[in-house]
Amino acid sequence: MNFNKLKFGSTIGIIGGGQLGKMMAQSAQKMGYKVIVLDPDPACPCQYVAHEFINAEYDNQESLEQLGELSDVITYEFENISADQLKTLVSKYNIPQGYQAIQLLQDRLTEKQTLQKANCKIAPFVQLSKTDDLNIAIETIGYPFIVKTRFGGYDGKGQILVNSASDIDEAKALLEKQECVAEQYLQLEKEVSLTVTIGNDNQITYFPLQENEHQNQILFKTIVPARTEHEKEAEARNEVDKIIKNIHFVGTFTVEFFIDGENRLYVNEIAPRPHNSGHYSIEACDFSQFDTHILAITGQKLPEQIELLKPAIMMNLLGKDLDLLEDQFSEHAEWHVHIYGKTSRKPNRKMGHLTVLTTDIDKCEQALLDKFEGRSQ
Ligand code: ADP
Ligand code: MG
């Protein structure tokens, strides 16, 4: 597919004004584009970088159309926009990403069905529409399994780990509020992710394989290159190639993977947008995941290959990490600190991140872990 090439001076409209929108805007501005952001929070991180700001809910059709009128291209920083509304916008405005990826991926059930259709390896799952369906999960998957809401979950929100019959009531309570899926809980050896950008004429560019560690289901750190055997990267690319035959992507997206104790790779989920585990690319690669996203949606050629300039460690800075470490930022020139500019600090809210480039990953990792040691769980 081929779409409009946008000259510098054109305007990019972004739905969502969080940290992903902010870092997209910063890449766009470097290339000479103007940025308009729509977000319900007037104090969102993008307030510092947008040329214009539309303060409205994500489902406010009139405001979305206003964004369309003012922009030469529209993109989004998160997947929980109404697919129907996006479809209407796609028919009127330049939205190279389309609505299909959002439609399939904002619902964990259709996401898993699409992955099955693509022949990707995923953890066994069952659909949960009513509380009785939990019996099917117990019979077919067995304990332990995780119940996840179909819509709207992130950073482990909307998930219950069911280890035994004593957790069933909690799962039932979640299921009474929302439809869910149940998924086998895997004994993970490692988590990895692959960030990819697709541009004009279906040009595809892969970032290096990323190794991720979560704490309380929130990304804690990313190490690149991932410390896995070399073939895992090719295996992950192969899974991505299967996925893109079934989902129309333009721009940057990330596939999250699990590796179990028997070294098997499973696709966990797909984020149709720049991703937290790709933030290291701002300093560590010759193009960041945000740069390639902007190049893609403005119809420009992508770099054929992304060069990792130096191995890197990215650590998220949650509110509790900022409390612990902010006084030390001035002592560590090697920490590339990013602060998103969120006005209210909460213990588990992502407030920023830091990236360190190093030729000695293990030593650097240990030094960082020592710094983060006092963090409350
Ligand atoms: P989110 O949308 O919150 O990122 P995920 O499904 O990726 O949701 O879950 C968050 C984290 O929880 C994962 O990165 C992983 O650490 C853990 N997790 C989720 N599902 C499983 C599973 N089936 N087995 C083991 N760990 C899991
Ligand atoms: Mg995830």
UniProtKB/TrEMBL annotation:
Q: Which GO terms describe its molecular function?
A: 5-(carboxyamino)imidazole ribonucleotide synthase activity; ATP binding; metal ion binding; phosphoribosylaminoimidazole carboxylase activity
| EC numbers on record | 6.3.4.18
Q: Which reaction does it catalyse?
A: 5-amino-1-(5-phospho-beta-D-ribosyl)imidazole + hydrogencarbonate + ATP = 5-carboxyamino-1-(5-phospho-D-ribosyl)imidazole + ADP + phosphate + 2 H(+)
Q: Which SUPFAM superfamilies does the record match to this protein? A: Glutathione synthetase ATP-binding domain-like (SSF56059), PreATP-grasp domain (SSF52440), Rudiment single hybrid motif (SSF51246)
> Coiled-coil annotation: which residues?
none
Domain ATP-grasp spans what residues? 112-298
Pathway annotation from the record? Purine metabolism; IMP biosynthesis via de novo pathway; 5-amino-1-(5-phospho-D-ribosyl)imidazole-4-carboxylate from 5-amino-1-(5-phospho-D-ribosyl)imidazole (N5-CAIR route): step 1/2
Sites where the protein binds ATP = 108, 148, 153-159, 183-186, 191, 214, 268-269
Its biological purpose is as follows: Catalyzes the ATP-dependent conversion of 5-aminoimidazole ribonucleotide (AIR) and HCO(3)(-) to N5-carboxyaminoimidazole ribonucleotide (N5-CAIR).
Q: What is this protein called?
A: N5-carboxyaminoimidazole ribonucleotide synthase
The gene that this protein is the product of is: purK
